[in-house]
Amino acid sequence: MTKPAKPEDLAARVPPGQTLTDNFPVLSYGPAPRFDPKTWDFKMVGLIEEPVRLTYEQFRALPQSKQVSDFHCVTTWSRLDNAWEGVRVAEIMKLVKLRPEARHVVIHCDAGYTTNLPLSEFIDDDVMLAHRHDGADLELDHGFPLRLVVPKLYGWKSAKWVRAIEFVDIDRRGFWEVRGYHNHADPWTEERYSFQEDPEE
To answer: For the whole model, what pTM was predicted?
Structure first.
C-alpha cells in the first residue's frame, strides 16, 4: 500500500497560488469537436526536411509510454499524480529531420486553437501526446483522441484535440497568448498574464 504523502511533500509539489483538487475540471474554448477515426490525421510541418502525415491507426501504432505527472491550471487548481498514456514527443521526433533554424513549435488543434512552445521545452522527456488518463481513454471534453501534456507549464499549454505540430524559427503566440496570457506559463513563478513578461524578452 502506498503511504499518503506528508503535508510538507505536497507543499513542495503545489505551486504558489494553487489549490488541490481531486476533480478534473473541463475548461475549453468552444465545444469539443467531433472525432472520426477514418478522417482524423496528425501532421508535422514547417521547418523539417519532409512533412509527416499519420492516420489515426498509424499514430496509435507508434511506441506507447506511461507517465505520472502533476497538472496545474492557471485558474488556480492543481491535480496531482495524473496517469497519462500515449506517445512521448521524443518518439515522434524520430520521424522528422529538423532544419537548423527551427527554434519553436506551434501546436495546431481542432477548432482553430493554437499554443506555442520553445523547441527546447517541447522535446523535454516528460512531454507527451496522450490519449489515456487515469486508466481510461481520455474523455472527449478532455481532448480525445489526442492532447499534449506539458507538466512543467500551466495547463493551457497542454492543448486538447491536437492535429499538427508546426516547427518555426520565430516564436508565434497562440490563442490565449495573444489574449493576455503569459507567453511562457511557468506555474512556479506564477507566469499567468502577459503584463508580467519582461519587456526585453
So the answer is: 0.92
